[in-house]
Amino acid sequence: MSGHSKWATIKHKKGAADKARGKLFAKLIRQIEVAAREGGGDVDANPTLRTMYDKARSASVPMDTIHRAIKRGTGELEGVHYESVSYEGYAPCGVAVYIEALTDNRNRTGADVRSTFTRNGGSTAEPGAVSWQFHRKGVIVLPKTIDEDDLMLVALENGAEDLTDQGDTWQLTSAPQDLNQLRTALDDAGIAYDSADLMMMPSTTVALESEGDARKVLKLIDSLEDLDDVQNVYANFDIPDKVLETVEA
Question: Are 173 and 162 in contact (CB under 8 A)?
């Protein structure tokens, strides 16, 4: 697992992926609306919507709020039209950064992203400059208490490409189109997991060996994630466990 994935997992466990529950709800609701608009409002027939739906439920978003978001996405209820946009750039130490946003105003979002890079010692890049270093994957994180053999038996028959030991968790990866099948198989087998999502995984990583470098990069990542329109931030840094533990403390 890349250092960024470890950092995201730590924040997920602490409930600190967003500064406030209201901001997290707003991001999830926006993702549900866009997924419903692009693939229809049937959760069972729209894998992306199913992923967003499950994320919202795990975050305790009320069911009526989720259903209204789906209806806004399908046009049954009036709502703001959001469009998907991505940004690319470099953090300190040459770390590649790929950002996914949903916005109703490209100019505002672009300006916010650029100023955040500048304030934190990074720089934006042209489209395609860093995206080639990332590949979209289905990623499921599971508690280490699950038996490896039991997990392998279900995973390998249902689209898993790899199972890796991440210390206190397991990580399953799959092709994007196989995430829903894999997640359903785990549910049917009664195997609990911490998270299941589509992510951009880096093909190469940049090692951040010092606490100072790690803090500079993580400050930029956190600042980008705090922007209202930004949904996901991916980066190809790799922080050694000892350094990450110091930063986490």
Answer: yes
